[in-house]
Amino acid sequence: MPILCYEITGSASPNPRSTTGAEDGQLSAVLKADHEAATAQVYSELVANRLAMFLGIPVVVGVPARAATDERLRFAALRAAEASLNVYDFTDDDHADPDADEYAEVALPEGMHTQSGHAYAIKSLCEKYPLETAQIAVFDLWIGNEDRALNFKAELSSQDRGVIFALDQGSSLLACRRGIEESLACLERADQPTFHPFQKLVNARYCGAMVERIMSMPDWAILSATTYDDTVGNVMLHEQFATYEVLLRRKKMLGDLVDRVLL
Ligand SMILES: Nc1ncnc2c1ncn2[C@@H]1O[C@H](COP(=O)(O)OP(=O)(O)O)[C@@H](O)[C@H]1O
Ligand SMILES: [Mg+2]
Predict the structure, then answer these.
(1) Cross-strand bridge partners of residue 64
(2) Which of 92, 21, 40 lies closest to 232, judged by CA?
(3) Which residue from 36, 59, 91, 165 has its CB within 8 A of the most atoms of ligand 1, so it is best to mutate?
(4) Residues 133-156: pLDDT tens digits?
(5) Nearest-angstrom CA–CA distance, 77 and 144
(6) DSSP labels for 71-131?
(7) Which of 52, 103, 125, 178 is a plausible cystine mate for 57, CB 3.0–4.6 Å?
(8) Paired strand residues for 155
(9) β partners of residue 63
(10) 148 CA distance to ligand 2 middle (Å)
(11) Cα separation of 197 and 179, whole Å?
């Protein structure tokens, strides 16, 4: 896949100590904080991001962030540089008319999740990016993310290569429900999540390979992504360890979840 670049904003100035011409500059980011509807949003975004980076899942990179004048910890999702790409915006509300003539010839598979819109575009997306959509879907089941609809973008029109990227894991892990306790209880359940926008559209072999990849992820890598020496936003240490442990248990449920939800 072509490399996904992030957006440099404003002008840069020479870095005075650099011996190789480095410049001081700025990147654009979407800044997210803990919220009453997702009390552990920052922690969940951060952990999901680190797990995704380890596994090679195409999600936008994000980092912990704090303003000099503000104690609040945020999650800064680096903004993709979309200006030079022809991106289909799956994050926009779907205004298409599903009865339009252009769709008359296209059959959607039975059991597909159509309630969140963009159904025909999602079908072409899964055809164009079979590997990446399978990877994202299996990952979402592992981290308890029921909020993938409207949270990804991709180049659809180009014939050959293009980019696809997922964003917003802020309703997964300890933020898959409003509160942390509720979220942990939800993650313990083998019947959660119950749906995914790519269900019935992904390739079984690619899903199986992704289940294998997650199952073989070393415990130390999951531990280092989930636990920190300090609270992260609203999330205390014992809750971070609980996340680590539930992710190990969810690895074992993953094959059955994929069979039930995606295939
Ligand atoms: N890293 C990013 N690159 C490009 N667009 C982004 C990025 N992060 C967020 N967006 C845009 O901003 C919108 C809101 O961000 P999101 O993280 O989804 O917030 P929320 O959790 O409130 O849904 C997204 O639907 C998307 O259109
Ligand atoms: Mg969103």
Answers:
(1) 75
(2) 40
(3) 91
(4) 999 999 999 999 999 999 999 999
(5) 20
(6) ---EEEEEPB--TTS-EE-TTS-----TTSGGGTTPPPPTT---TTS-HHHHHHHHHH-HH
(7) 52
(8) 87
(9) 76
(10) 8
(11) 24
